[in-house]
What does this fold into?
Amino acid sequence: MRDSILHHAAMIIRLEGLHACTHRAVAEQCAISPGTVTYHFKNLDELHAAVIERAVESFTQQTHAWFGAMKENSVAQQLTQFLFWTLDERERLICEYALFVAAVSRPRLRQAAAAWIASHQHILQQHFALTAQQAEAVVAFTDAWLLRSIIQEGKKPDAALVQRFFTSILQS
It folds into this structure.
């Protein structure tokens, strides 16, 4: 039941936004009583944090698989390609960032959102042997462009500029 609730909560967020993901809306989608949702998730922060945790797991699996399948290009090329691949996953990107940005004003979601950042940094350190500072800079730069793309209706950065920026991070 918990998995079904989380699946439907994520679907509501993806289709209608975070504000639409309430106990009642999830219960309606799952064809269960709102009390059943409340039994598993006492408040919306718990529900949204669980959706974030599930999204982090999915992101981690997909990102490991993506980097694992990449050809042996330079690290800067792979990071650039990853950024553009993520930008092309617009629906998923918007859902994930709705959750991520909600953590700004909801302290109970911050730990789950911080796990997302840590996961991304850890993946980069594993795959590319980056230092902690390099991984942190790559994630911050990537997040900035992903968020800008959402706000600017899909605007993408110049690939050559992105690659040069990643190269400069890697040389530091």
Remarks:
- The longest helix spans residues 44-69.
- Residues 115 and 157 are 26 Å apart (CA to CA).
